[in-house]
Amino acid sequence: METETTAQELDFMRLAYQQAELARAEGEVPVGAVVVKDGVLIASGYNRPIGKHDPTAHAEIMALRAAAEILGNYRLPGCELYVTLEPCIMCSGAMMHARLTRVIFGASDPKTGAAGSVMDIFAQDNLNHHTEVRGGVLADECSALLKSFFADRRLAATEKRRNLANSLTESLSESDKRN
Ligand SMILES: [Zn+2]
Prior knowledge:
The protein is α/β, with parallel strands linked by helices and 179 residues long. It contains 5 helices and 5 strands. Strands 2-1-3-4-5 form a 5-stranded mixed beta sheet. Helix 4 links the parallel strand 3 (79-85) and strand 4. The longest helix has 40 residues, at 139-178. The structure holds zinc ion. Zinc ion binds next to helix 4.
């Protein structure tokens, strides 16, 4: 049975949310993550595959890399990772390689979520390491941030098409005048 979300879990998810806002400010899909050890924040990261020209630059990977660098260890036992969106297959795999104790995510991802939505890698008994998972922490806020990002992006795309159509019409009527 799911236990109540603790105040500490909410606090760390809010920090992950702030990271997601940094991603958004750079025009990246707003997902943020933080790594916590013994109740202390040790590293953070946000989604930036476009800016870094790196398909693996998801928030979780950025945060795991930073945490491993800080601890001087490629394994992160005793660490927890908070991320605003359900992790994908790649990130879930990386978390297991890191021997994370627990992952806490915000919104579910029905398209690529590997912690219960599309599949549940964490429930695979035949994998040798088990990372605990908890979803739905600050889910509404995390999901609203993503939704407003995509809505803005659609709006911008519509605007762009409209401007293109307008300038096309203008140049056509210009050439009409000349004929
Ligand atoms: Zn990922």
